[in-house]
Amino acid sequence: MKHRQTLVLALLLIAGTSAATAQGLLGGQVTGNIQLDGQISRRDSVIGSEDVPQKLLSNARADILYTNGDFSAGLRYEGYLGPMLGFRPDYQGQGIANYFVSYKTQNFAITAGHFYEQFGNGMALRAYEDRYLGIDNALRGINVMYRPFRGIILKGVIGQQRYFWESRGLVRGADAEVSLNDLITPWSEAKTRITLGGSFVSKYEDNSEVILSDIPGFKLNLPRNVATTAFRMDLAHGGFGLQAEYAFKGKDPNDLNNYTYHKGEVLWLSASYSQKGFSANIQAKRVDNMGFRSVRTEAYKEMLYINYTPAISKQHTYAFLSMYPYATQSMGEMGLQADVMYKFKKETLLGGAYGTDLHINASLIKALDTTQIGGIGTDGYTSTFFGTGDTYYGDLSVEIAKKLSSKVKIAATYGYVVFNPIIEGHAGDLHHNHVLVGDLTWKMNKKNSLRFEAEWMGSDSKYDAAVDDKRCGDWIMGLLEYNFAGKWFVSVSDQYAYNDGVGNYYNLSVGYTQGATRLQVGYGKQREGIICIGGVCRNVPASNGLTFSLTTSF
Amino acid sequence: MKKGILTLAALLLATVAMAQNAKFPGNVTLKSLDGKSVESSVIENGGQPMIISFWATWCKPCNTELDAIKEVYEEWQQETGVKLVAISIDDARSASRVKPWVNGKDWPYEVYLDQNKDLARAMNVGADVPYTFIVNGKGEIVWQHKGYQPGNEEELIEAVKEALK
To answer: Residue B93 is part of a domain; what is its CATH number?
Structure first.
């Protein structure tokens, strides 16, 4: 049935396209993008890359988009002929993974098929995709948007979530957003801009499965419908900004919360002030039992999420600073994050001839203060609103960036990271890491440039084979990158554990870019994480061997 | 198998239709830095060319590119009338930091948030940033480039001049 629908849609698309082409396109157009990633991997127990019986693994996809005025339609081919490392084996296979038709005008829009959507910051609903992490919880169903009058936007969604090659669960949601400055005419020119919003999202699930309570002799009375309600506000006044979102969820016993009946809530606040050359931002968040997923028994931790509770700590990009990435503990956490940027002006003592940039960031995330009251079938625990427990994560970073001459730019960073291995599910002591980074770019002439990066990390953690955390110990790293004529790049890098650790991650990468087409080939050992080389940033899984990536858009 | 063939057919047709320049999509909803929903049709430059640059706060090469263009931006504007519009793909994790970031960096650009990546999808940006487009005075996408390496801005301004012709 699914196949037939896809076929009909594809035929319609092709018929539409051919008609359009034949008649001078009628204003219609076809665009798209294609991506092929592959790896020839060798097993390496030291860095944690697995054995690959088929030798070559590849992920491929092609998005085709047809647009004609207010109408558009699209489909996406995906092929995982041996899914790449870091991807669930359930992706194995190929076919049309995503298709939709959409009609959209200024005041009304409707999409049928797969769609991505976000209400507010996503704390009640966020259907999104991160292709490098193997996350795609696109909804398949109907998405409607309507503006009854200026200043009000209403949205409604109903659909099932993508689960590898099928769709699961049932999600219904509605959202309203009001821009007071647009709605109330006398306020239209006011300096204070206020936007308010609210959402209601509900999931439905059959409750025929039997889950036994920890209280002997009882089975769980599972709710068929579970709802999350959210309210948000965005206030701006000149350089000041204040944003807030609060969401709460009904009783939702599921695999994440050990089938307990504790209600969920999340509160997120962000305040900022900025002016030319200076900015400060502070964020606070409290999350309690907010894992909202469409199938209660789902065992894969990243799948079937309906909502999104963002981590508030800074997303670092230098290798050693991002070695311990923080992920929100949706079961409960409390966090604070602050960010200050300052530009020392030109022709001042610290500014020099070109000015100097200073960026300071700090965050601290702790567990909630909870008291256990029972297991499966009970309320699980109680928590106090302002109480905190163990430290999950903390960081401090100071970065100074300076242009020395028209050709040379340098940046120096000091970072401090505290990390609790419990957030990745291992017991153990906190890791305390100090990181130093030096980064130099030398633009030799209009077409050629050289970049050099050196990093050091000193840690109180020691490698322990029983836990097998390959990030422990003291590390040094060097990276040299040569960009040639704005088209080619070559980079070599090495990360080496010189004390209390294991591993030697060497990598050689070569890339070529021509307009929208880019080919990159690498050889060596790669950690998982965000890698920015040759002028592009992407998230990559751990690998060992040859990797290649080809992307193009048309 | 059937699906594979269909995809191939669609691809072939795509190449046929490629000859015409794609239009900059005007019906995508973005957010302004004040938190208000706006249609992408508000992005225009009165018949002059525009540079559309997709970026994120956590993306180093994106920041390097926008910093580098800042230094020559006035010159570019006087010479060609071009306007740069920066589209942030930061998600909820860092979206609230975009406005202070832009002010702190003192960037002279018009900036919008594309948290749900609707515009990025409509323009086939894929998953990697930076990604830069030139839209000519008629609203057609005439040039695109993925990534930033020092010196790429020279190529960019040449392409803007080309788009004026």
So the answer is: 3.40.30.10
